[in-house]
From TrEMBL:
Gene3D superfamilies with a match to the protein in the record: Aldolase class I
Stated name of the protein: Orotidine 5'-phosphate decarboxylase
GO cellular component assignments: cytosol
Record organism: Thermodesulfovibrio aggregans
Reactions catalysed according to its record: orotidine 5'-phosphate + H(+) = UMP + CO2
InterPro entries reported for this sequence: Aldolase_TIM, OMPdecase, OMPdecase_AS, OMPdecase_bac, OMPdeCOase_dom, RibuloseP-bd_barrel
Residue numbers annotated as active site: D60, K62, D65
Length: 234
């Protein structure tokens, strides 16, 4: 298993806890996800620290607002040299277009490689019953994910965040070069916590995922480096 394709989620509220994990995984993992909890509590400072340590950053804030607001929000975070960021596909095609435009304009202006921009399809905490309750009409999870992935592809986003169960379908309709990042990764026999659609790392890569995101199964372990090395070597 290629460790460069593993993203560890720093789901903490304090930078000290997050950086302790980064230090414990030094030499093994180089790619980290910063989500709402850590970003809202520590702000841009955590991004600067991770970059100073030479780490890659997946900024998972799931931007979802009117197009112009998302355009400005995306531009505001690009100065921190992030490598990957997310918008929510349900924000619509115009919003996704503006996010993509923000990345292109900023990268051209600064003469830097553009970060990958991904659309979040359906959260792994939602099953089909939840979708019916939220949307007020029946739709299969697979159909919704497929449609949202196609919309993201049409507006030239780099890929999507989606459950392992949808990877093959997304690759079939969007092409092998379309990036799929899969959250909800668990070790065998581990706790699912609040996620309903989960898989192991081996299952994710076997289905064709480009990257996996794993969090509490590693970060809440007493021996995080051993856990992730065992997973890589399994």
């Amino acid at each position: 298993m290629d460790p460069s394709r593993i993203i560890v989620a720093l789901d903490f509220s304090k930078k000290e806890d997050a950086l302790r994990i980064v230090d414990q995984l030094e030499g093994v993992i180089n790619f980290y996800k910063v989500g709402l909890e850590l970003f809202l509590s520590e702000g841009h400072e955590i991004l600067k620290i991770l970059k100073n340590k030479g780490k890659k950053i997946f900024l998972d804030l799931k931007f979802h607002d009117i197009p112009n607001t998302v355009y400005k929000a995306v531009q505001s975070v690009l100065q921190y040299e992030i490598d990957m960021l997310t918008v929510h596909a349900l924000g619509g095609t115009e919003m996704m277009k503006k996010a993509a435009l923000a990345v292109k304009e900023y990268s051209y202006k600064e003469n830097i490689p553009p970060p990958k921009i991904l659309a979040v399809t359906v959260l792994t905490s939602l099953d089909e019953k939840d979708l019916v309750e939220a949307l007020s009409f029946p739709i299969s999870r697979e159909s919704l994910v497929k449609n949202l992935a196609l919309k993201a592809k049409q507006v030239e986003l780099d890929g999507v965040v989606s459950a392992v169960s949808s990877v093959k379908t997304i690759k079939q309709v969007c092409g092998q070069g379309f990036i799929v990042v899969t959250p909800g990764i668990r070790l065998k026999n581990s706790n699912f916590h609040d996620q309903k659609v989960v898989a192991t790392a081996h299952e994710a890569f076997s289905e064709g995922a480009d990257y996996i995101v794993i969090g509490r199964a590693i970060t809440h372990s007493n021996f995080p480096q051993k856990m992730i090395v065992d997973m890589i070597n399994s």
